[in-house]
Amino acid sequence: MKTLKPLLALALGVSLVLPVEAHRAWIVPGATVLSGEDPWVTFDGAISNTLFHPDHFPLNPEGVSALGPDGEAVELQNVHSGKYRSTFDLNLKQNGTYKVFSASGGLSARWQDEKGERRFWPGRGERANPADFDTQVPKDAENLEVSYNSRRIETFVTAGAPSEEALKPSNEGLELVPVTHPNDLFAGEEATFRLLIDGEPAVGAKVTVIPGGMRYRDGQNAIETESGAEGDFSITWPEAGLYWLSASYRDDKAKAPATARSGSYVATFEVLPE
């Protein structure tokens, strides 16, 4: 399994996860529950203004990984990045649940220079290199703020019977641990999930759930909630279809040199008819 530290170089590829409210990142499988002797799934990845309609920027496929039912990495096939979306295939050779995800994390800083102007590290469009922190960020700068930020985008698919191994958290950054299996969701039923930050309950995380098909309706029809004392929250799915879930969290329990940590989490779920 890849951890956040080796993925720092990939932060640019997913840095567009919710910096602007209208731009939403997502990975969508062609199907989430499959059967047969040799099932394949095609995935789309994008950052778009309208959910599940690629119209802005492709998700960087180099930052996407997959875990199989045994918890081991599975190779993506036929990877391609176009103008507005990236695509790839996954051969589900084992029965069970697969997790497809993009994860990154790293330090960022902002401060005021001697002229009172705002400075940022890394600069806009640049990749953060942790080795540069000590030389690029003045420790005695005015109003210095150093944060550790994590980002994760996920979706899940199952061949045959659902399994749990791929759903285990890495305990790095903001993560979702399904209490209800993510490929066992049905319209009208309640599903429960738990949010963790670095392996501990993410209490008070803000959660937004939006159904797909936004371009065919006037409103977002967003469901908003907040995680409880154990990081848990529940969603009752109003109807069948694809859903986009976003969670955000921030506190002051970061490891030095950071004084704050924040996490963003995004997942796509398919809810089946009753």
Task: Describe this protein's structure.
β6 and β7 (86-91) form a beta hairpin. It contains 2 helices and 18 strands. The strands form 3 sheets. Strands 2, 5, 8, 9, 10, 14, 15, 17 and 18 form a 9-stranded mixed β-sheet that branches. It is mainly β and 274 residues long. The chain has helices spanning 11-14, 133-136, and strands at 24-29, 33-34, 40-48, 57-58, 64-67, 77-81, 86-91, 96-112, 118-121, 142-159, 174-178, 190-197, 200-201, 206-211, 223-226, 232-236, 241-251, 260-271. It has 2 domains: 5-105 and 147-271, Immunoglobulin-like; 106-146, no CATH class. The two termini are 35 Å apart.
In terms of structural class, how would the helical and strand content be classed? Answer: mainly beta
How much of the sequence lies in strands comes to over 45%
Given the C-alpha coordinates, what overall shape results? globular
Helix content: under 10%
Short description:
With 274 residues, this protein is mostly beta strands.
Q: Topology of this protein?
A:
Layout: H1 11-14, E1 24-29, E2 33-34, E3 40-48, E4 57-58, E5 64-67, E6 77-81, E7 86-91, E8 96-112, E9 118-121, H2 133-136, E10 142-159, E11 174-178, E12 190-197, E13 200-201, E14 206-211, E15 223-226, E16 232-236, E17 241-251, E18 260-271
Parallel strand pairs: 2-10, 10-18
Antiparallel strand pairs: 1-3, 3-4, 3-7, 5-8, 6-7, 8-9, 8-10, 11-12, 12-13, 12-16, 14-15, 14-17, 17-18
